[in-house]
Design a protein that fits this description.
single chain; Thrombin, subunit H; 4 domains; 11 helices
Length: about 450
């Protein structure tokens, strides 16, 4: 009995001794923790951004010399250099940053973590969310490492977060903290985002961090660093990934890229591409697409991501596409017909628009906008007392610089929604005297 007991005990002790001896060799380096792994995963997608802005100066005497003597002095120019950060979201070299980092730049350069430097071009931006898209001017076929998007609202108050970027031009830099606060109010529609809409963290965010990623320990993008609260310590802010994703979805849409009404929003980072929202009465809705549908094929070809999805959809012959979609275990085929903005605006409002000045008509004192060319009988436009020759300068407070601006607003409206138009009308008062009158008109979309 005792012999069996002591034998078992000796065997157990020997086993523990062998495991203890083997442990130091088998265990990983304790320093290689979740923080380090997240940084290693994300750093290749982080870029440093340098912008150059050239400003020309004219003074009172320049104007006098030109007007009275015909002299033209060479304008004085000054160059300003500023630094920021960004993050690659697509292997082809599309980069997200803050709009305020690049919007006035005449030249943009990006530098990757491994030292490679490239010129970049500003593609599109949204002032409401302070998000802008750049595109690296890479060699044909060159690919980059893209960051992964975290799911919307997948946030834990107090979880560890990391801010990556280029503070004070110091290059690839990492700071660590916690998620101090989530957004403090629900979505405010088209209103510009501010502190109440941003994520708060005590991870150090300094000048130059703007546009860089705020990530979780899975190495996923949860926010885009945007600002620091200078009056406090350990208070930094980031645009939530939900708002970033909405901006990206609007950038890579047939509406923004090609002025074609699709009527649905694609979720960035999803593979297969997933439909997150469908507008009632739009082409996607009429085709039978539903929120949650995953798009497996477009005209027999498989999109590799949401950027490829946008390219394939916008390049379909005749704006017609056959989509193979899946929801749950059910697969079905839908036939989609995209609608040009001109036709969509006529359908919703009964308006035909042209760019101001393109037809040789009145210049409205140099004001920019879209000129009403035709008003359909018994349409919402006629019921709102809009007339041929009026100039639309704003739509829902957004400058109506071109058809894309007007179309994007109308594309977001459903039947019964109202659109507020700022219009300028021309009135002649006596020989050679023209008066311009401005007002607002509410139009109900049909």
């Amino acid at each position: 009995m005792k012999s069996g007991y002591w034998g078992t005990l000796c065997a157990l002790l020997c086993s523990l001794s062998l495991r203890a001896n083997a442990l130091p060799e088998a265990s990983a380096d304790i320093r290689h923790d979740a923080t380090v792994m997240a940084v290693e995963q994300v750093m290749p997608s982080v870029v440093n951004i340098a912008t150059e802005t050239v400003v020309e100066y004219h003074d009172f005497y320049d104007d006098l010399l030109r007007e009275f003597y015909g002299w033209r002095r060479t304008p004085r120019k000054e160059r300003y250099i500023s630094l920021g950060s960004g993050v690659i979201i697509d292997e082809d070299g599309d980069v997200l940053t803050n709009l305020h980092v690049v919007q006035r730049a005449t030249r943009v350069q990006v530098k990757l973590w491994d030292g490679r430097e490239y010129e970049a071009e500003w593609v599109v931006g949204t002032s409401g969310r302070d998000v802008a898209l750049l595109r690296i001017k890479a060699r044909p076929g060159e690919k980059f490492t893209a960051i992964k998007f975290a799911p919307d609202d997948d946030l834990f108050l107090g979880e560890t977060v990391l801010a990556l970027g280029n503070p004070f031009g110091l290059g690839g830099s990492v700071t660590k903290g916690i998620l101090s606060s989530k957004t403090r109010r629900p979505s405010a529609g088209n209103e510009p985002l501010d502190i109440n809409d941003w994520l708060q963290t005590d991870a150090a965010i300094n000048p130059g961090n703007s546009g860089g990623p705020l990530i979780n320990l899975r190495g996923e993008l949860i926010g885009l660093n945007v600002a620091v609260y200078r009056e406090g310590q350990g208070i930094g802010f980031a645009i939530p990934v939900k708002q970033v994703a909405k901006a990206v979805a609007s950038f890579f849409s047939p509406e923004t890229a090609r002025m074609l009404w699709f009527g649905a929003i694609v979720k960035p980072g999803s593979n297969p591409v997933a439909i997150s929202e469908v507008s009632v009465g739009g082409p996607a809705d009429k085709a039978g697409l539903k929120a949650g549908d995953r798009v497996l094929q477009i005209n027999g070809r498989t999109p590799t991501g949401f950027l490829d999805f946008d390219r394939m959809l916008g390049e379909t012959p005749g704006h017609k596409a056959t989509l193979l979609v899946e929801q749950g275990k059910e697969r079905r085929t839908v036939n989609l017909v995209l609608m040009p903005f001109e036709e969509m605006i006529r359908q919703k409002a009964g308006l035909s628009l042209t760019a101001a000045g393109s037809t040789g008509g009145p210049n409205f004192g140099g004001q920019k906008g879209m000129l009403i060319d035709q008003v359909e009988k018994d349409s919402p436009a006629q019921l709102a007392d809009l007339q041929r020759g009026y100039l639309i300068t704003q739509v829902d407070g957004v400058p109506a610089v071109d058809l894309r601006d007007v179309g994007n607003i109308f594309a977001s409206k459903s039947k019964g929604d109202r659109v507020r138009l700022t219009v300028v009308a021309q009135r002649r008062r006596g020989a050679g005297f023209v008066e311009y009158r401005q007002g607002t008109i509410d139009l109900e979309v049909r």
